[in-house]
Structure formats: C-alpha cells, structure tokens
Amino acid sequence: MAVELGEVQLQFAKLIWEKEPVGSGELVKLCSEEFGWKKSTTYTVLKKLCEKGLFKNEDGIVSSLISQDEFYTRRSEEFVEETFGGSLPAFLAAFTSHQKLSQKELQEIQRIIDNAKD
Fold first, then answer.
1. Residue range(s) defining the domain that contains residue 101
2. Does a structural domain hold residue 94?
3. 30 near 39, Cβ under 8 Å?
4. Structure confidence by residue, pLDDT tens digits, 18-50
5. Per-residue model confidence as pLDDT tens digits over 54-78
C-alpha cells in the first residue's frame, strides 16, 4: 500500500495519531487551533486520508486503521524498494558513505541483525 502524503496531510495525520480516538467535533477544534482551519477544511482532509486507508470516521469518532509506526515502516520499505531496488545493504552503503556511524549506532544495527537471524 503506497501512501503519499503532503506535508499538511502528514501533520494532520500526526495530530490524529496523537489524540486518537478523537471525536470529529474535537478534531475540528484542534485543527482550528493548530492549523487555523475551518470545519470544512478539516473534514475534506479527513475524508482524503480515510479514502487512502489511514483512518476511519465512524459515528463521529476518528481512529486509525494503521498505526503511525506501521505507516513509517511501510514508507521506509517503499523508499528502499524504489530507490535501492529493495536492497537494504545498498541503502546502508549509501547512507554511511558520507556519514560515520557512532559505536552506539553500530551496536544497535548489530543487535537488529542478530535478532533477524533468530
């Protein structure tokens, strides 16, 4: 599931993830305070994100269909697939070619690799 979000949609999604489950009336109030949006703008953007399969609005309660972590996981996987042909080693090589990793980062990567072996 490829989900492309613009910056405004992403900020709105983060607000929902932070506050969910949230009543749609409360969401309108939050968006007015956070973004200066009118009620119609909030509902338009919410509808688009519901159509993309991220959220649902049932009985005036807005909640996520996928978590924020799942969204970013999918987005990362799509990036590696599109940019590096799905090769995680190619991504890491490119990432580290201009940036040194700290000992802590190397240990964390090693831990992830060790856990993936199990």
1. 87-118
2. yes
3. no
4. 999 999 999 999 999 999 999 999 999 999 999
5. 999 999 999 999 999 999 999 999 9
Say if strands 61-64 and 22-23 run parallel, antiparallel, or are unpaired. Answer: antiparallel
CA distances to 5, 63, 85, 95 from 28, rounded to whole Å, are 20, 14, 41, 40
61 and 103 co-located in one domain: no
Report the number of distinct structural domains present in the chain: 2
Q: How far is Cα 22 from Cα 57, in angstroms, rounded to an integer?
A: 9
Find the CATH number of the domain harbouring 26.
Answer: 1.10.10.10
